[in-house]
C-alpha cells in the first residue's frame, strides 16, 4: 500500500468526531420558562471592531445598575455577566454577535443569536447598514424584539419601521442637527463639499448636514462617495473642489479610514485648515491621531448627542456618569457607543418589568415610550419616542479641542439643539426616499431649531443663541 | 517484403503545400516546403530529429498556422482554416506524444473522434439510436487495433503501447480520407510493431497515409514514396529504393539513425 | 472489477440514504438546523456544484461563480421588489411579476455568463482563474458603486415577492428547504446526465487535451463558452435560492471572502466529483457553526481569527492528505482496498460518470 493507513484513517476519524460534535447541536434543547433570553449584536471586525467591548460594557453596566447583574470581569466586558433579572425572570445573555458592518454578516449573526440561540430580544446592531438589514429581518419576525444599539441610518425607523423595532437614540441626521447652521454663522461658510462612505449611515449624516446647511442658505457644490471598504482616497479627494473653490468640507468617512482620507487631502491640497473642515461623529476616530488631528483643533463636528470633555453640568448628566462608571474600569461612559447601548439595555429592563417578563408583542407594548437618559435636557430631561418608536433627542454640536495627551484631541460641547425629531419638522418622512447619494436635494427651508441653537459654555446651557 | 504497388491512377491531390514555412521567433522550423501527396498514396516523411517533420504536420493539420505559403487539402485552400475545419474535411492525425484523454475511457476517446467529424458535438442530450450507432463504430475501431479488451478502462491507466493503439483507433474511427501518423511505432515492442505494420498495410486504399517514422523498417515497408527533410527543408523525394540508395540520406540519417530507439 | 461494483453499490446506498434523510430532515432536525445549516448547505452546494462542474469536467477552475450568483440575486431583487410604504428602501424596485423576474434574472445571468465565458474561453490555468476572479470583482464593484441597483446597503424584501408556485418562504422555511432540495437534486441529475451526452464527453476531452480536441474537429472555445454558460445557469439557480434564503442582497455576498469561501467548499468536497459540492458545503457550515458558537465568550477580537485559523488548518489538512478533498479521500480508500484485494493494476482516480455510462 502506497498510502499509509493513518493517512486514510486519521482524517476519517476526525471527520467522524467532527460530525458527531456538529450534529449534537442539531437537537433542540428545551427552553426554560423562568428566563428571558437576550443577545447583544455589535461588531468585532471591520472599521468598528472596537465597538465590541464598549457596546457590551454599556449593556452590562446598565443591567448591573438596573437589573442586579454583575460583570464577570471589570476589565473585559465581553467576558459576560452573572445574575440579573427583570420582570421576575432571570436575564440570560445568550450570545454577543460579531459583525463587520456588512449587512450580510449582521443578518447571519442575527439569525444565529435569535434563532439558533433562541434570543427573544436583541440589543444592537452597531452600524447603519446592519440596522437596515436587521430592520427588514425584524419586520418578518414580529415575535422578536430589536432595540437598536448605536446604528444611525434613517430607514430602520422611518421607511421600514417595523413594530418590534425600537431606537432610543437619534439617527445620523439628528446627530448632525445644528452643525450646518453653526458653520454658516460662525465660520461664514456659504458653499461646501461633502465626502463620505458610500452607505446608509453617512448618507443619513449628510442628510442632516444638508438639511441644516442648505436650510439656512448654504450650498453643497459637490458630494463625493467612497467605497466603505476604504483603500486609496487620492482619486476621491481629487474629485473634491479645491480649497479656494469652496468655503469648507464636511467629512463623513468612518472608522480607521478617517485619518487616511484626511491625510490624502493634505497630500493633495496642503495642510488642513480647521476653519475649513467639519464632519459627523466619525471625526471622533481621530482621537489618538497625532498627525492630522491637531490641525483640526477648533473645527466643529456632529456627535451622538454626547460629548467627551466639558460635558453637561447638570444633575441628570452627573448622575448618569456616576452610575455608569461604577461597573467597568477603563470605559468612557460619555462615549456614544457606551451611552446608547446603556439606554437600550435600560429600556429593555423597564419593558420587562412592566410586561412581567413576557416577551414578544407584550414586551413591545410594554417597552417605554419615554426615558430619562443622562444627556437629555429638554422636556424636563425626558426623551420621547415618536410613533415609529424613534427617539426625539437633544443634540449637542461639538468642537474639536486639544486633549491632555501630547498631540491628541478631544471634543467639547458648544451648542444645544433641543428635541431634534427624525423628520426635521417634516423635511424627511416615511413616504419620502431614504437618504442616498443625491437625496435629499439642497433647498432653503425653515427647520424647527433654526436660529434657536443655544450656546453651551463649559457644560452649561446659556440663554444666548448662536450667531 | 511486400512492396505496395502504386495503385492510384487519378492523381487527385490530397495534399498540396506550396512554399510553406513556419517560424518560431528566430528559428525557421519549416522552410519553403513544397509537398504533393495524391489520393491513396502512402507517404513517409523522414529526417533526423529537429528536421521539422512534426512542425510540418502541425501546419498541415492546422494546430499551427503557416508563417508563409499555402496549404491545400482535398483541393481546397485551408491555409486560414482552423484545425477543426480540416478535421471535418477528413484529415485525421495522431501525435508523437500521444495527447490522449487520460480521464476518459478508451471507448469514450474513440467516441469523441467520431463525434468530432459526425456533428452533434454540442448536443446536450442523449439520442439513443445515434449513441448506439456511434458507440458501435467506436467498438469496431477498437477491434481493428486489438484494444477491445480495454474499452472500459481509463486511458490514463494504459501502457504506452496501448496508448498508440488508442491513438490509431481514434484516427481510424473518424473514417478519414487522409491519415497522418506521427511516429506511431515509437516505444512499441517488437510484436506491437509487427501488428502496427500489418494494420497499416491493410488500410483501405482510399485512405491517404502520411507517416513520420523513425523505424526505417516500418517506414520503408509501408511507404510508396518518401520525403526526406533536414533543417526544415525537403532535401530528397523518391521511392523507398531510391532513398535507400541515396548517399545524402545515408550520411544524414540512415548512418546514424537507422534502427535507433 | 468487484471492488468497483461494491464501491458503486455503496455509493448508491449512501446516496439513497442521504436522500431519505434529506426528505425527512424537517422531522429530524431543529428549525435552526434545517434553515441555517441544511438549506444553506444545499444552496452553497449548488453554487459549488457549478464550480466543480466546470473544474471536474471542463478543467476550468472558475472564481466567477459567486459573482454570477450575486448577479442573479441582484437582478431578481431589483426586478421583483416593489415601492410600497413600510417596504424596501434600496434598489430599482421595478415591481415586476415574480415569475417573469425569476426567468429574466436567470436568463440575464446565463447571458452574462456566456459573455464572460466567451472572453475567458481561450485562457487556461492560472490565467483563467485570474480572469474569472476579475469577473467577480467587477460584479462586486458594479453593484456596490451603482447605488441605483443597490450600493453597499442591503437590497431587501426579495423573499417577499416570490412566484406563486414557490409560495410563502418567509414564514414557511420548510417549504424553502424542499424547494432548495429539489433544485439541488435537479442540478445533480442534470450534471450527471450532461456529462454523458456528446457535449459532456467532449467537454471532458477538452479538459484533458484541448489541442487534440481541435484536431478532432471540435470548436474548443465555443465548447468552453457554452460550458461556462451552463455553469452560469447553475450558479444563477444558487443565486436565486440564496437571495430567497437571505431575503436581502448586499455586495459582500459576492466579495472576495465569499469567493474564497466557495472555493474552499469546493476544495474540501473535492474538485473532481460533483458530489463533493454538497459534502464540502455541509462540512464547511458545520465547522463554521461549531466554531462560532464555541468561542469562549472572553476570546473575542480573535473570533474571526479563530474561525479562519481553524478552517485554514482543516483546509490545509485536507489538501495535504487528499488533494481531491473528501471525495478524493473516499476514492482513495477504495483504491487502497482494490490494491489489496484485486489484481495489481493502476486504477484511475475518481469514478467518472462517463465510466459508469460506458460500462
DSSP summary: helix tally of chain A: 12
Structural class of chain C: mainly alpha
Overall pLDDT level of chain C: 87
User: What is the number of independent domains of chain C?
Assistant: 1
The largest chain-to-chain contact, stated as pair and per-chain residue counts, equals: A-C, 69 and 59 residues
Query: What fraction of residues of chain A sit in β-strands?
Result: 15-25%
Binned, the helix content of chain A reads: 25-40%
Fourth CATH level, the homologous superfamily of the largest domain in chain A: Response regulator
Categorize the overall geometry of chain A: globular
Distance between the termini of chain A: 89 Å
CATH fold-level label of chain C: ABC transporter involved in vitamin B12 uptake, BtuC
Order of strands, main sheet of chain A, comes to 10-9-11-12-13-17-18
Describe the main β-sheet of chain A briefly: 7 strands, mixed
CATH C-level category of the largest domain in chain A: Alpha Beta
CATH topology of the largest domain in chain A: Rossmann fold
Ranges of chain A with pLDDT <50 over ≥5 residues?
none
Amino acid at each position: 500500500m502506497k498510502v499509509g493507513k493513518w493517512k486514510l484513517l486519521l482524517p476519517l476519524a476526525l471527520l467522524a468526531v467532527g460530525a458527531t460534535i456538529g450534529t449534537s447541536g442539531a437537537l433542540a434543547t428545551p427552553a426554560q420558562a423562568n428566563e428571558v433570553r437576550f443577545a447583544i449584536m455589535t461588531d468585532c471586525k471591520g472599521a468598528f471592531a472596537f465597538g465590541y467591548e464598549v457596546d457590551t460594557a454599556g449593556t452590562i453596566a446598565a443591567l448591573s445598575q438596573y437589573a442586579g447583574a454583575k460583570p464577570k470581569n471589570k476589565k473585559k466586558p465581553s467576558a459576560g455577566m452573572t445574575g440579573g433579572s427583570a420582570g421576575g425572570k432571570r436575564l440570560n445573555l445568550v450570545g454577543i454577535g460579531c459583525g463587520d458592518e456588512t449587512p450580510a454578516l449582521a443578518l447571519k449573526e442575527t439569525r444565529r443569536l435569535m434563532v439558533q440561540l433562541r434570543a427573544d430580544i436583541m440589543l444592537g446592531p452597531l452600524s447603519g447598514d446592519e440596522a437596515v438589514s436587521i430592520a427588514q429581518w425584524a419586520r418578518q419576525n414580529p415575535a422578536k424584539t430589536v432595540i437598536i444599539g448605536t446604528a444611525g441610518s434613517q430607514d430602520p425607523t422611518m421607511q421600514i419601521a417595523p413594530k418590534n423595532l425600537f431606537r432610543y437614540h437619534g439617527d445620523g441626521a439628528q446627530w448632525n442637527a445644528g452643525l450646518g447652521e453653526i458653520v454658516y454663522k460662525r465660520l461664514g461658510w456659504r458653499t461646501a463639499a461633502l465626502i463620505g462612505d458610500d452607505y446608509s449611515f453617512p448618507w443619513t449624516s449628510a442628510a442632516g448636514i444638508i438639511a441644516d446647511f442648505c436650510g439656512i442658505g448654504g450650498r453643497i457644490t459637490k458630494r463625493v462617495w467612497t467605497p466603505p471598504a476604504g483603500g486609496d482616497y487620492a482619486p476621491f479627494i481629487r474629485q473634491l473642489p479645491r480649497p479656494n473653490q469652496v468655503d469648507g468640507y464636511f467629512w463623513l468617512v468612518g472608522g480607521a479610514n478617517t485619518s487616511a482620507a484626511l491625510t490624502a487631502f493634505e497630500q493633495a491640497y496642503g495642510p488642513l485648515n480647521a476653519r475649513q473642515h467639519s464632519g459627523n461623529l466619525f471625526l471622533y476616530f481621530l482621537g489618538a491621531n497625532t498627525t492630522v488631528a491637531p490641525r483640526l483643533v477648533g473645527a466643529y463636528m456632529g456627535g451622538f448627542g454626547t460629548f467627551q470633555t466639558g460635558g453637561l453640568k447638570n444633575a441628570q448628566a452627573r448622575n448618569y456618569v456616576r452610575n455608569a462608571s461604577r461597573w467597568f474600569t477603563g470605559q468612557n461612559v460619555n462615549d456614544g457607543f457606551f451611552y446608547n447601548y446603556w439606554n437600550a439595555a435600560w429600556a429593555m429592563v423597564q419593558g420587562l418589568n412592566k410586561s412581567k417578563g413576557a416577551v414578544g408583542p407584550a414586551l413591545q407594548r410594554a417597552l417605554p415610550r419615554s426615558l430619562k437618559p443622562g444627556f437629555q435636557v429638554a422636556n424636563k430631561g425626558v426623551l420621547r419616542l415618536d410613533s415609529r418608536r424613534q427617539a426625539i433627542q437633544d443634540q449637542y454640536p461639538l468642537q474639536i479641542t486639544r486633549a491632555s495627551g501630547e498631540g491628541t484631541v478631544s471634543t467639547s460641547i458648544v451648542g444645544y439643539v433641543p428635541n431634534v425629531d427624525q423628520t426635521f419638522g417634516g423635511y424627511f418622512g416615511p413616504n419620502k426616499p431614504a437618504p442616498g447619494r443625491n437625496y435629499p436635494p439642497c433647498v432653503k427651508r425653515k427647520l424647527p431649531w433654526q436660529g434657536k441653537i443655544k450656546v453651551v459654555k463649559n457644560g452649561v446651557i446659556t440663554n444666548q443663541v448662536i450667531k | 517484403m511486400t512492396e505496395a504497388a502504386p495503385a492510384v491512377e487519378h492523381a487527385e491531390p490530397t495534399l498540396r503545400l506550396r512554399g510553406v514555412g513556419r517560424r518560431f521567433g528566430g528559428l525557421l522550423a519549416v522552410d519553403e516546403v513544397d509537398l504533393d501527396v495524391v489520393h491513396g498514396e502512402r507517404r513517409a516523411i523522414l529526417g533526423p530529429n529537429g528536421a521539422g517533420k512534426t512542425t510540418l504536420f502541425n501546419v498541415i493539420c492546422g494546430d499551427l498556422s503557416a508563417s508563409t505559403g499555402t496549404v491545400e487539402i482535398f483541393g481546397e485552400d485551408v491555409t486560414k482554416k482552423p484545425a477543426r475545419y480540416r478535421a471535418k474535411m477528413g484529415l485525421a492525425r495522431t501525435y508523437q506524444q500521444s495527447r490522449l484523454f487520460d480521464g476518459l475511457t478508451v471507448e469514450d476517446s474513440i467516441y469523441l473522434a467520431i463525434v468530432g467529424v459526425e456533428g452533434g458535438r454540442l448536443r446536450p442530450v442523449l439520442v439513443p439510436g445515434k449513441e448506439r450507432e456511434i458507440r458501435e463504430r467506436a467498438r469496431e475501431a477498437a477491434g481493428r487495433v486489438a484494444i477491445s479488451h480495454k474499452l472500459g478502462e481509463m486511458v490514463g491507466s494504459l501502457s504506452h503501447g496501448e496508448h498508440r493503439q488508442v491513438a490509431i483507433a481514434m484516427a481510424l474511427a473518424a473514417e478519414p480520407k487522409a491519415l497522418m501518423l506521427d511516429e506511431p511505432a515509437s516505444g512499441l515492442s517488437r510484436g506491437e510493431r509487427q501488428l502496427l505494420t500489418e494494420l497499416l498495410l491493410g488500410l483501405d486504399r482510399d485512405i491517404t497515409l502520411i507517416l513520420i517514422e523513425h523505424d526505417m523498417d516500418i517506414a520503408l515497408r509501408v511507404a510508396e514514396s518518401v520525403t526526406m527533410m533536414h533543417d526544415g527543408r525537403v532535401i530528397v523525394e523518391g521511392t523507398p529504393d531510391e532513398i535507400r540508395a541515396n548517399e545524402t540520406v545515408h550520411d544524414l540519417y540512415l548512418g546514424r539513425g537507422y534502427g535507433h530507439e | 472489477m468487484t471492488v468497483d461494483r461494491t464501491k458503486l453499490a455503496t455509493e448508491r446506498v449512501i446516496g439513497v440514504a442521504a436522500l431519505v434523510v434529506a426528505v425527512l430532515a424537517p422531522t429530524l432536525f431543529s428549525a435552526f438546523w434545517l434553515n441555517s445549516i441544511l438549506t444553506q448547505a444545499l444552496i452553497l452546494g449548488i453554487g459549488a456544484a457549478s464550480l466543480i462542474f466546470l473544474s471536474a469536467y471542463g478543467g476550468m477552475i472558475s472564481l466567477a461563480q459567486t459573482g454570477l450568483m450575486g448577479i442573479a440575486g441582484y437582478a431578481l431583487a431589483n426586478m421583483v421588489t416593489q415601492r410600497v410604504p413600510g417596504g424596501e428602501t434600496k434598489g430599482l424596485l421595478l415591481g415586476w411579476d415574480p415569475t417573469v423576474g425569476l426567468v429574466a434574472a436567470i436568463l440575464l445571468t446565463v447571458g452574462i455568463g456566456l459573455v464572460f465565458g466567451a472572453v475567458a474561453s481561450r485562457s487556461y490555468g492560472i490565467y483563467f482563474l485570474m480572469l474569472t476572479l476579475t469577473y467577480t470583482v467587477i460584479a462586486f464593484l458594479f453593484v456596490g458603486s451603482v447605488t441605483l441597483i443597490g450600493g453597499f446597503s442591503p437590497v431587501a424584501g426579495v423573499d417577499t415577492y416570490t412566484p406563486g408556485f414557490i409560495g410563502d418562504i418567509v414564514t414557511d422555511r420548510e417549504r424553502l428547504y424542499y424547494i432548495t432540495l429539489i433544485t439541488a437534486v435537479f442540478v445533480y441529475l442534470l450534471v450527471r446526465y450532461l456529462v454523458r451526452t456528446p457535449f459532456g464527453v467532449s467537454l471532458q476531452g477538452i479538459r484533458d487535451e484541448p489541442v487534440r480536441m481541435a484536431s478532432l474537429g471540435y470548436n474548443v472555445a465555443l465548447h468552453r463558452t457554452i460550458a461556462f454558460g451552463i455553469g452560469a445557469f447553475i450558479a444563477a439557480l444558487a443565486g436565486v435560492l440564496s437571495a430567497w434564503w437571505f431575503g436581502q442582497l448586499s455586495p459582500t455576498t459576492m466579495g472576495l471572502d465569499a469567493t474564497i469561501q466557495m472555493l474552499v467548499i469546493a476544495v474540501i468536497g473535492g474538485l473532481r466529483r460533483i458530489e463533493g459540492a454538497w459534502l464540502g458545503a455541509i462540512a464547511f457550515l458545520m465547522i463554521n457553526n461549531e466554531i462560532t458558537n464555541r468561542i469562549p465568550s472572553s476570546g473575542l477580537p480573535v473570533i474571526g481569527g479563530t474561525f479562519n485559523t481553524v478552517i485554514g488548518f482543516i483546509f490545509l489538512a485536507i489538501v495535504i492528505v487528499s488533494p481531491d478533498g473528501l471525495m478524493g479521500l473516499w476514492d482513495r480508500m477504495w483504491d487502497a482496498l482494490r490494491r489489496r484485494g484485486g489484481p495489481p493494476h493502476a486504477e484511475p482516480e475518481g469514478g467518472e460518470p462517463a465510466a459508469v455510462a460506458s460500462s
